[in-house]
Every structure is written in C-alpha cells, then in structure tokens.
C-alpha cells in the first residue's frame, strides 16, 4: 500500500470524525457539575452562576427545614415562599447548564411546591435522561409529576 498525501489526509479526516463522534456520544446523558473545567472560557459567568446557585440552595434548604420530612415541603405552605424565591435563581443556572441532575431536581420540586406543578415534569424527564438519581425520593416525585400531568403511559 502506497502512502500518498491524499490518503494520509483522508485517514486523518476519518480519525478526527470518529473522535468527535465518540466524544459527543460520551457526553450525552452525563451529569455536568458547575466546575470551571466543564465551562472553559466562561469562568466569570460561572462564578456569578455559582454564587446565585449557593444563595438559591440556602433558600431551598430553608424551605426543607420548615417541614419535618423530605416529602412534606411539597405540601407545607410556609416552605412554598422559600422555594418560589429560589426558583428564578435555579432557572438562571439551568439556562447556563441544563445537564445537572441536582439542579433539575431542585427546580422540579420547587415547581411541585407551588401552583405550577405541571412545569416540574420536563425537569424530572431531564434527570431521567442524565442516567442519575440525585435524591432518594426521585422516583416517587417523578411518578407524582407524571400523575399530575396525566401521563399514564410512563407510570
């Protein structure tokens, strides 16, 4: 087999295409944390998002602390204000990184605690696509969201 410049370039293109296809497939369905290495060239924006995410998480946990059990905040009226105050900050972080299971779980449960319960479903579905379970009550709350949306096929 004679190697020519054209055959070498052709093989190089094939190898590069194969590399990009495999790396794309490996990143699909992965939980992406809010770390600088996951967001190159976006360090300043990431710092703002992480700062707001920490504030939102404190609000969210304050909501959890208002009620005795993990599932209780969904029905605890006092906790709703904390969840609803945290929600815009969570949604801002979600616009930056939609592939974080914990963030999707917090958004979904915040929606379940308020008047727009039906909005929780896409966030539970995203968690399912990430192939990770961020909380022990995920399956129960996901089923509740499916029920509220009348999605009986997935139950």
Task: Jot down its keywords.
mainly alpha; 6 helices
What does this structure look like?
The longest helix has 23 residues. 64% of the residues lie in helices and 0% in strands. It is mainly alpha-helical.
**Strand percentage:** under 5%
What would you call the shape? flat
Number of helices: 6
Order of helices and strands: HHHHHH
Q: Can you describe this structure in just a few lines?
A:
The protein is an all-alpha fold and 155 residues long. It has a domain at 43-148: Serine Threonine Protein Phosphatase 5, Tetratricopeptide repeat. It is 64% helix and 0% strand.
Topology, please?
Elements: H1 5-27, H2 43-65, H3 77-96, H4 101-113, H5 121-129, H6 138-148
């Amino acid at each position: 087999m004679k190697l020519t410049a054209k055959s070498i370039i052709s093989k190089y293109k094939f190898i590069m295409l194969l590399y990009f296809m495999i790396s794309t497939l490996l990143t699909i369905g992965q939980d992406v944390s809010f770390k600088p290495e996951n967001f190159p060239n976006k360090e300043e924006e990431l710092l703002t998002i992480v700062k707001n995410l920490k504030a939102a998480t404190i609000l969210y946990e304050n909501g959890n602390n208002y009620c005795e059990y993990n599932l209780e905040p969904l029905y605890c009226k006092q906790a709703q204000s904390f969840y609803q105050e945290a929600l815009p900050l969570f949604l801002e972080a979600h616009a930056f990184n939609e592939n974080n299971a914990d963030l999707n779980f917090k958004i979904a449960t915040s929606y379940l605690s308020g008047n727009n319960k039906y909005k929780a479903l896409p966030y539970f579905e995203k968690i399912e696509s990430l192939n990770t379970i961020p909380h022990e009550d995920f399956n129960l709350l996901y089923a509740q969201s499916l029920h509220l949306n009348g999605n009986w096929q997935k139950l």
